[in-house]
Amino acid sequence: MAQDLSRFFEPRSIAILGVSRGEVRFGGASFLSYIRQSRYAGRVYPIHPQAEEIQGVKAYGDLKALPEVPDLAIVSVPAAHVPGVLGQCADAGVRHVHILTAGFGETGTVSGRRLEESVAAIARERGLLVIGPNCMGAYCPRSGLTLWGAVPGEDGPVGVVGQSGAVLQRLTEHLGSLGLGVGKAASIGNATVLDATDWLAFMAEDPGIRVLALYVEGAGNPRRFHHLAREVCRRKPVILLKGGESPAGAATASSHTGRMAGGHGLWDAACRQGGLVMVRDMDEWADAILAFSLLPAPAGPGVFLVGGGGGHSVIHADACVREGLEVPPLSRASMEALRRSVPRAGSIVGNPLDHWLTFADPAVMGQMLDLAGADSNVHMVMADRLIGRKAFHMPEMPDPTPGTIEAVKGCPERKPTVFTVDSDGGDPALAAQGAAVRASFCRAGIPAFPSVPRAARALAHLWRYHRRFAT
Amino acid sequence: MAQDLSRFFEPRSIAILGVSRGEVRFGGASFLSYIRQSRYAGRVYPIHPQAEEIQGVKAYGDLKALPEVPDLAIVSVPAAHVPGVLGQCADAGVRHVHILTAGFGETGTVSGRRLEESVAAIARERGLLVIGPNCMGAYCPRSGLTLWGAVPGEDGPVGVVGQSGAVLQRLTEHLGSLGLGVGKAASIGNATVLDATDWLAFMAEDPGIRVLALYVEGAGNPRRFHHLAREVCRRKPVILLKGGESPAGAATASSHTGRMAGGHGLWDAACRQGGLVMVRDMDEWADAILAFSLLPAPAGPGVFLVGGGGGHSVIHADACVREGLEVPPLSRASMEALRRSVPRAGSIVGNPLDHWLTFADPAVMGQMLDLAGADSNVHMVMADRLIGRKAFHMPEMPDPTPGTIEAVKGCPERKPTVFTVDSDGGDPALAAQGAAVRASFCRAGIPAFPSVPRAARALAHLWRYHRRFAT
C-alpha cells in the first residue's frame, strides 16, 4: 500500500536548483552549505545558469548537464518558476523532488492557489514524488542528511512527520539532547502531493521506526488519514500534536500551510477512537515520545512514588491521580519490609514513600526497585531525583546519578521506571545540572522528566495506549 | 481581628531548646548553625543542661538563666518532652514558640494525638502563640531570619504560608532565583495552635505583602478559612495549592501533618466561589505568583502573540485559547502598520504574528509593543524569546535580551507583557542560558516563563482574578 519514499531519506545524489552565489542565508545556498557541513557522503550538484562553482562545489548549467540522474532535486526557485522546474525534473528523469519554496496556497491568494494546483497536476501527470512545497524536507542521520538540524544527528527509533520545519527542528534537538535519536523526519509543509497520510504510511512500514510522532495542521483527506492511523497505531504508537484546535490557531494554520485546520472536535474524537496518543504542546509531545521510546508496556496504572518530603508526596500523588494513574497501597509484604528498613523519623512509609535516603543512596534506591518488582500492586515506579538546592542545606556529596543508573539497570524484576529532576527557576547552574542529570538518565535508557506532572502525563499516555492494544 | 504574629518574623532574641553538642545535622543544632550563618542580628541563646557553649555560642542551663526573656523559643526536644518545655516557656514569660519537633498527630497513634492535644491545651491556658509542631517555622529576609533557606533571601512582596517546609523551601528558592523576594513565609506543619487561617489573617494585614501564596493540606475549621480567604482575596490575590485532592494524597497528608485533607470537591468549590486562585502543582504556583507580583491588571483576555515560526504560532494560539484567553484579530490600523513593516517572505502578519526579527531586534520588539499599546483589541502581550538552538543554524549575534528589556520598559503604553524562553531538553548549556535569560527578564520586572502553555495559564489566572475583582 505505502509508496516507497526511502529515496528521499537516502539519496545517493542531490541536485539543488535555485542556489545563489551570494551571501548564504536562506534557500538553496543555505542547504548547499548544510550539506557540505554534514556527514552526507553522496554527490551534490548545484545548478546555476552561469556559475562554474558555488561554495567550492562544481556547478552545472541545468539538470541535463549532470553526469547522472540525481536521486533527489531540491527546488528553491521563486514560486512562479516552480512548475517549469518540475517539468525539467521530469524531463531529466528525476523522480524525487523537495520544494523548499514558499508562496503557494498558504498566501491565501488566487495566484498562490493556482500555482499549488499546477504543482499537483504536474506531479500527477509526470509521476513525480514531491515533498512540500514550503518545507524543510527530509532528515535522516544514517545517511548524513541532517540538513535542517545541526543537532548531534544520531540515528534512533523515532520517526517524525510534520507540517512545520521549526517545530520539527525543535523536537529533533530536544530529543537529541536527551540522547534519543530521530531516525527519519519529514517536514512536509503544504503537503500538496504527498500528504501526512502518505508519509505516515511509509514510516509505518519502516522497521527502524518504533515510535511515530506527527505534527499535523490538516490532511487533504482526513477520513483516509484516520483510517490509516487507526491501523498503524495497533502496531506502533502514533503520537499526534494537532495544530489548529482554536479558531486563531486554525486561521494561522491556513496562512502557514494553506490547510484548513478546523473541525477540531471531529479530529479529536476520531483520533481518540482510533487509539492515537493526543498531546497538546511541545513538552508533552517530547515527554510522550521519550516514554514510548524507552519503556516497555506497564501491566497496569499503579505507580509507586519514591522520593522525599511529606508535602511533595501529597502533591505528587495528586498529580498522578489527576492524570489518570493510580497510587495504590503497597502489599503487606512491601509495607513490612519498609517498616523494617526505613528510619521512622522524618519519613512516611507507604505509597508515596517519603524516604530521603532514596535521593542520596543508590543502594536504597535499588532496594525500592526490588520491592516494586515483587509487589503486584505496583506497575510503574516514579522516583524523585532531588538535586542539591541551596534551600535544603544539603551537604556536598558525590553525585548519586551513576550509581542510581546502575541500580536501575541491575534490577532483575524492573518495572517501567522513570525519574523526575526538577531544576526550574532562574538559576543557571541548577538548570544546567538538572539538564545534565536528565540527559544521563535518558542516555542510559531511563526516561527523566523535569516535573512529576509531566512524568505522570507521559506515563498515563503509555498506560492507556498499552491497555488498549495489549496483546 | 488578626493576631499580631510579627514577633515570629522579627524576634530580637531567640532561645533554642533541644540543641545537641554533637554533629550538626538536624534539629536545634542545625538551626543554631543556620542562624550563625545568616544575617540575623539579634541575640541567640542555646539552652543545654551541661554545655558552657555550643558552636562557639554561650549556652545557658535553662530559660530562667537567660539575661532577658527571649522573643522566640525554638523547641526541638523529643515530642514527649514538648508539653513540659512549653510550661517552662510560659513560666519564663516567653510568648512565641516554634515547635520544630515531629511525632504528634501525624503519627496516627493515640499517644501522638494526645501529645498534640496537650500542646493545644497548654498554649490555650498559658496564652502561648505556637508555630507548629512538626515544621520549619518562620522566614523573614528583612530580619535575617532565613533559617530554612540559604537562598539569596531578598525581601519582597510575596507572603507564603504552608504546611510543608520542603515545599516552601523549594518555592522560596525558585522565586529567589528569578529575583522575586518572599518577604515573609511561615512553615506551619500541623498548625495545632495557630492554623492556616490565623497566618493568612496576619499576612493579609501586612502592608509589605501584596501577593499571598498558600500550601494547605487541611484547616482546623474550613468554614472559617473560606470565610476569611474570600474577604482577603478582594484586597490581595490568594494563590492556593491545596494538597490532598486524591485519596492517596489525602492519606499522605494525614501522615504528614495529621490533617484530614479530604473533601476536595467542597474545598475546590468554596475556593473558586471565593475568588481564590487555585493551582495544581509547584510550577503553576510559582508561575502565578510571578505574574501576580509583577503585572498590573489586564483590561481583558486578549493576548497578542509575538514570535516566529508558523507551526509554533498555531500551537501557541491553541495553548492560549485552551487556558481561557483570547487571541483576537488585530485592529485594522495594526494590520496596516504590520503589512507596511513586516517582510512578506517567511512571515505571517496577524495575531499570532510570525516575524522572526522580533527575536533578534529589540527595536522591532519595541514597535510591536507600541502597536499593542494602541490596539484596543489587545490587552496583554506574550512574546516568544527564542534562544539560539543548534537546530536553527542561527548566526552568532549579540544577546538581544538587554535591549529588549529596555524596549519593554521604555514603552509608554505598555500593557501586561510577558516573555517565554524555552530551553527544555537535556542540553546543560541551553538550560543555563534559558534560566539566565528568564532571570534577566524577571529581575527587570518582566515575567518570563519556560513555555507558552505555562505563561498562558499564569495570565489566565491573572485575568480571571482581575475580571472578578475589578475596581
Question: How do the strands and helices of this protein lay out in sequence?
Answer:
2 copies of one chain form a homodimer.
Chain A: H1 6-9, E1 13-17, H2 27-37, E2 43-47, E3 53-54, E4 57-58, E5 72-75, H3 82-92, E6 96-99, H4 110-126, E7 129-131, E8 137-139, E9 158-162, H5 165-177, E10 182-187, H6 196-205, E11 211-216, H7 222-232, E12 238-242, H8 247-257, H9 264-274, E13 277-279, H10 282-294, E14 303-307, H11 310-322, H12 332-341, E15 353-354, H13 357-360, H14 362-374, E16 380-384, H15 401-409, E17 417-420, H16 428-443, E18 448-449, H17 452-468
Parallel strand pairs in A: 1-2, 1-5, 5-6, 6-7, 9-10, 9-11, 11-12, 12-13, 14-15, 14-16, 16-17, 17-18
Antiparallel strand pairs in A: 3-4, 8-10
